[in-house]
Amino acid sequence: MEKRRKFDWYVHDRFGMFIHWGIYSLPARHEWVQRYEYIPCEEYLKYFEHFNPVDFNPNEWARLAVEAGMKYLVITTKHHDGFCLWDSQYTDYKVTNTPFGRDALREVVDAFRAQNIHIGLYYSLLDWHHPDFTVDDIHVLKLKENRDELNQGRDMARYREYMFNQVREILTNYGKIDLLFFDFSYPHIGRDGKGRKDWDSPALVQMVRQLQPDILINDRLDYPDSADIITPEQVMLSEPPRKTDGSIAVWEGCHTFSGSWGYYRDETTWKTSAQCIELLINNVCLGGNLLMNVGPSAKGNFDPRAVSRLQSFAAWMKANHDSIYGCTMAPAEFPEPRDCRYTWNPEKHRLYLHIMNWPFEYIRLVGLKNRIKYMQFLHDASEIREISQAIREHNNLMTPTDEHSAIIKLPVIKPPVEIPVIEIFLKE
Ligand code: GLC
Fold first, then answer.
1. Ligand 1 centroid to 124 CA: how many Å?
2. Ligand 1 in contact with 261 (CB < 6 A)?
3. Dist. CA 122 → ligand 1 center (Å)
4. Dihedral-angle region of residue 98 (phi above 0 means left; psi in -120 to 50 means alpha; beta otherwise)
5. Is 354 helix (H, G, I), strand (E, B) or coil?
6. Which atom, in ligand 1's list, is nearest to the CA of 122?
7. Which atom of ligand 1 is nearest to 184's Cα?
8. Are 406 and 424 in contact (CB under 8 A)?
9. Nearest atom, ligand 1, residue 234 CA
10. Element at 382 (helix H, strand E)
């Protein structure tokens, strides 16, 4: 009971904003730029020394999130490069020591919370800046040949202490935190890969739960027992992740608008607005959430390409949010018609038919014969009707499955909505 309550907001809200922001927004070549280009810490410091986002306005960020229909935030407090977006007492490598000089995390959290948005924090388990974090195959010093020598003075126990202190800090000084997104474990990657033992995941989880009893923790600690939510990234699942008892796990897919999480000026693989909306529908129709990422620039602005996609979400969600909030996977007795996705609101007893590819005039809804009370488009509440038996026979629309199916008739022209949705009220 208790357990279920803590998930309520999350499985209802379905749609959140991920924000990746740090000093990697200055090179603007991916948040992994330090590792991809093997930039030594001394050289990477130039980004720290020039971080001054004069346009930073978290109220504007929050406004764009709210308008897009997003109900929660997950923001990077520290990414793999080790730079901290808050005023941590445990390091000098933090936002308050850059020319910007302000605690950006506090301002973001305050702005989003003021809009009733739930707050999630991302914390990188990896840290390429910390002198005690041992060199492994993912580290920026990977190519150095004297790894053993380099690692001699490094002590993961001291790093762990630092990490525990920081996690305690972000979970103590910023009010109620609803979600913690640890990233990531790699026990099997190359030499010296890291996981549960290196982070002391059981103790870490215990501390987190003590500090924030209702918090949701993701699944990247190499400690499956502790995971409240499963977080596949940049994949479109065809089946929902399931627990050992067969029930659907609580899960969230995270995605970028383009191929990078951090601001990447020259990246061109931006998804279309329709693709973005499809991601949302495709996750909810498998009982999951969508966490859609924005990587603000070093000036503190959202990329205009991200803004335009957020605006497309806004337009679509304004008209169709009933098919997202409070919805989940439809019961198996209602198989999805070709080119369509169902979501299902169990409380309202309504099915939502998302028509991904506009067909010509008819859609057959298997399993819905004599089950439909009323149907309408979500965007304009105009009625959609089932065709009569006479027309079915006249038009030869009969097939062996017809005993169980309802056939609906659509306008020839697709309505002016990116992905039209039909709301189907079922008889009790
Ligand atoms: C990956 C990447 C990272 C990104 C994260 C988001 O683990 O390492 O850059 O923050 O995915 O899920």
1. 9
2. yes
3. 10
4. beta
5. strand
6. 10
7. 7
8. no
9. 12
10. none
CATH of region 2-323? 3.20.20.80
For the chain, the domains span 2-323, 340-426
Q: What is the rounded CA–CA span in Å between residue 208 and residue 227?
A: 12
Ligand 1 atom closest to the CA of 262, numbered from 1: 9
| 340-426 shares the fold of 2-323 | no
Residue 183 Cα to ligand 1 middle (Å) = 7
Note down pLDDT in tens along the chain; length 428 residues: 445 589 999 999 999 999 999 999 999 999 999 999 999 999 999 999 999 999 999 999 999 999 999 999 999 999 999 999 999 999 999 999 999 999 999 999 999 999 999 999 999 999 999 999 999 999 999 999 999 999 999 999 999 999 999 999 999 999 999 999 999 999 999 989 999 999 999 999 999 999 999 999 999 999 998 999 999 999 999 999 998 888 889 999 999 999 999 999 999 999 999 999 999 999 999 999 999 999 999 999 999 999 999 999 999 999 999 999 999 999 999 999 999 999 999 999 999 999 999 999 999 999 999 999 999 999 999 999 998 877 877 777 777 677 889 999 999 999 999 999 999 999 98
CA distance 133 to 127: 6
Choosing from 81, 182, 184, 222 the residue with most ligand 1 atoms within 8 A of its CB, the one to mutate for a pocket test is: 184
81 lines ligand 1 (CB under 6 A): no
pTM > 0.90: yes or no: yes
Any ligand 1 atom below 6 A from CB of 252: no
**Residue 160 alpha carbon to ligand 1 centre in Å:** 20
Cβ-in-10-Å burial (0-12, 13-18, 19+) of 307 comes to middle
Distance from the CA of 394 to the center of ligand 1, in angstroms? 56
Q: Which atom of ligand 1 is nearest to the CA of 32?
A: 9
Distance CA 106, CA 108 (A): 6
- 31 Cβ closer than 6 Å to some ligand 1 atom: yes
Distances (CA, A) of 77 to 11, 354, 373, 375, 397: 24, 36, 49, 46, 58
Q: Is 313 exposed, middle or buried (0-12, 13-18, 19+ CB in 10 A)?
A: buried
Architecture of domain 340-426: Sandwich (2.60)
